[in-house]
Amino acid sequence: MDIQVSHVSKSFDRKQVIKDVAFTIPSGEICCFLGPSGSGKTTLIRLMIGAIGADSGTIRFGDVQMPNLGMLSKIGFMPQNDALYDDLSAESNLRFFGGLYQMNPGQLKQRMNEVLALVNLSEHRKKLVRHFSGGMKKRLSLAASILHQPEVLFLDEPTVGIDPVLRRTIWDQFHEIKKSGTTIVVSTHVMDEVTECDKAALIYNGALIEYDAVDRLLEITDNGKVEELFILASGRTQGGAAV
Ligand SMILES: Nc1ncnc2c1ncn2[C@@H]1O[C@H](COP(=O)(O)OP(=O)(O)OP(=O)(O)O)[C@@H](O)[C@H]1O
Description:
By secondary structure, the chain is of the alpha/beta class. Helices cover 33% and strands 26% of the residues. The protein has one domain: 3-Layer(aba) Sandwich (Rossmann fold). It has seven helices and ten strands. It has a six-stranded mixed sheet, sandwiched between helices. Helix 5 links the parallel strand 7 and strand 8. Helix 3 packs across helix 4. The longest helix has 15 residues. The protein is globular and about 55 Å long. The site of adenosine-5'-triphosphate has 12 residues, from helix 1. Keywords: ATP-binding, Nucleotide-binding.
């Protein structure tokens, strides 16, 4: 399912935090939202999943204009702060999410086995989440977000605070999920993660300063580093030009 964001703007308390943003993510691609803290990545994700409304502009998933309740079963969302119940086991957490998605018991059982295996938590399924490490919670949170086989998956800073080895594992899992045709939108402020993605949206002060295939974006820099694009953008801002 293609995602089309057309001239979307959003203000909070009269401060514009998303400024006329427009781009299209082709079906089945991984797109990252890259930008410094406070640049607007989470707000853009919340707009796209329909958690908040835009002041202007439109967001379409395929032919459907968001927000649309019927689309909820096709969307997976992994929030920045894990939305898990500490006092429940891993599998009870997944059962809770399965209930939200109205999955039938047979389907839920099969999917629980599949997603726990994908995130390497099968042997910890009976353990209470309060005894999980931070990395295990991240992986369980990812498992919960894909339980219902969403067509589009939103991941808000999924690797923040994660060590490099586990980060590699988690990215391998994203690539595995992509193989099933899922479109993935992932926010990050780790510049190196851009090379894991097909497309990148560079967000700075609520504006989209670049959106392109990652290969092409890296070509237009002198040193092949994405940071350079942000340095150029901040220079333009200080000079008074719009970015
Ligand atoms: N509900 C809200 N009310 C008022 N201001 C908000 C609200 N949500 C976000 N903002 C503001 O919007 C701006 C963008 O925030 P957002 O969380 O989208 O950035 P971000 O790029 O995701 O940051 P981070 O990487 O730190 O998560 C910030 O200035 C933030 O303070």
